[in-house]
């Protein structure tokens, strides 16, 4: 049997499994999915778990079942590309014929002193549970600060505001506006929502260090009972340790087939891959579908036919009743994008499950 090992059961990992199973999977192929958890966590909704507006069970999706799919649980210690094996921390190492790296991302702290130690995270299911507990334990009128005014930070702030109207909440960003990578129309709409919902927005904040109970913006101390970090991501440590070509963001540079050039038996999907798209669940899923087609073509001895990766748009939530989005070049605001986001989540859970 030839072993195709998939590292990571997130959006990219499950999409590649589904893509391979949708076409005829050769009988001599055994797929092995490796993950630390016995289910997929819907990472795009972790902000709701942290805020307490979604339960643990709501964000779980069962892994698929198939006679040619084996699931192994555990922590990955490292990847030996030359030896073609995955080294596990407390279980038997796994030898592969083909490897798909879809391990996702973790927080990037930009070398800021105390940021990793004194801020809370929503980058993993486990850390999000801890963040929920910390936010839940803040006393009324306590101060919560979210560092980072991108999509994750905005959704975290708005969901927490609906969950805890008693808290003082602020979002801090180094740019001159919220959602700086989006059109200004979206920024203005979100900032207005924050104003009407008593969320403090602070721009051009340069965080020098973080301590227990305080954030340093130069000589200014911003007091904080809980600080949530949403100010950057990078590939997970296992990928950081690989000695292969990477872009400035630490993502692995690939050939047109999403392979590591020196190791064509290894594919990289999602947040660990250097793509011409911003990291997202949608990008990981679209790339995974393309890689599944590439693998099937190579197994058949055909030349893969590549198509451009296209995304349908971006949707964001402002609590449960409002939202915003970018569909192509068109900004959409209000209740409609929120309903669309809920629909996408429902379809995703149904498809993946």
Automatic annotation (TrEMBL):
BP terms from Gene Ontology: aerobic electron transport chain
Name this protein carries in UniProt: NADH dehydrogenase
Superkingdom of origin organism: Bacteria
Cofactor or coenzyme needed: FAD
Residue ranges occupied by any FAD/NAD(P)-binding domain in the UniProt entry: 3-285
Gene3D superfamilies membership: 3.50.50.100
Entry's family note: Belongs to the NADH dehydrogenase family.
Source organism: Paenibacillus antarcticus
GO molecular function: NAD(P)H dehydrogenase (quinone) activity
Keywords tagged on the record: FAD, Flavoprotein, Oxidoreductase
Keyword Oxidoreductase: yes
């Amino acid at each position: 049997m030839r072993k195709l090992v998939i590292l990571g059961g997130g959006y990219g990992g499950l999409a590649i499994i589904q893509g391979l199973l949708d076409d005829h999977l050769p009988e001599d192929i055994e797929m092995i999915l490796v993950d630390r958890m016995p289910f997929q966590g819907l990472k795009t909704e972790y902000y709701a778990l942290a805020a307490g507006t979604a339960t643990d069970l709501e964000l779980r999706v069962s892994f698929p079942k198939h006679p040619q799919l084996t699931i192994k649980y555990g922590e990955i210690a490292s990847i030996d590309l030359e030896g073609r094996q995955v080294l596990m921390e407390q279980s038997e190492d796994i030898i592969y014929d083909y490897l798909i790296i879809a391990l996702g991302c973790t927080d990037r702290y930009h070398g800021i002193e105390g940021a990793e130690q004194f801020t809370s995270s929503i980058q993993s299911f486990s850390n999000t549970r801890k963040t929920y507990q910390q936010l839940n334990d803040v006393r009324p009128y306590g101060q919560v600060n979210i560092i980072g005014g991108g999509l994750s930070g905005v959704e975290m702030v708005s969901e927490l505001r609906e969950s805890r109207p008693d808290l003082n909440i602020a979002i801090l960003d180094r740019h001159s506006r919220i959602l700086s990578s989006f059109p200004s129309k979206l920024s203005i709409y979100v900032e207005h929502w924050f104003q009407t919902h008593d969320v403090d927005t602070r721009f051009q904040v340069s965080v020098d260090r973080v301590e227990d109970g305080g954030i340093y913006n130069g000589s200014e101390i911003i007091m904080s009972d809980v600080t949530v970090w949403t100010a950057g991501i990078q590939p997970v440590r296992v990928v950081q340790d690989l000695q292969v070509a990477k872009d400035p963001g630490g993502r692995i540079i690939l050939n047109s087939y999403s392979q590591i050039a020196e190791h064509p038996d290894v594919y990289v999907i999602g947040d660990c891959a250097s793509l011409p798209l911003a990291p997202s669940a949608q990008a990981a899923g679209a790339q995974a579908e393309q890689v599944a087609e590439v693998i099937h073509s190579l197994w058949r001895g055909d030349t893969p036919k590549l198509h451009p990766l296209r995304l349908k748009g971006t949707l964001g939530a402002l609590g449960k009743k409002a939202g915003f989005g970018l569909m192509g070049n068109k900004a959409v605001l209000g209740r409609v994008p929120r309903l669309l986001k809920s629909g996408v989540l429902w379809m995703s859970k149904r498809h993946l499950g």
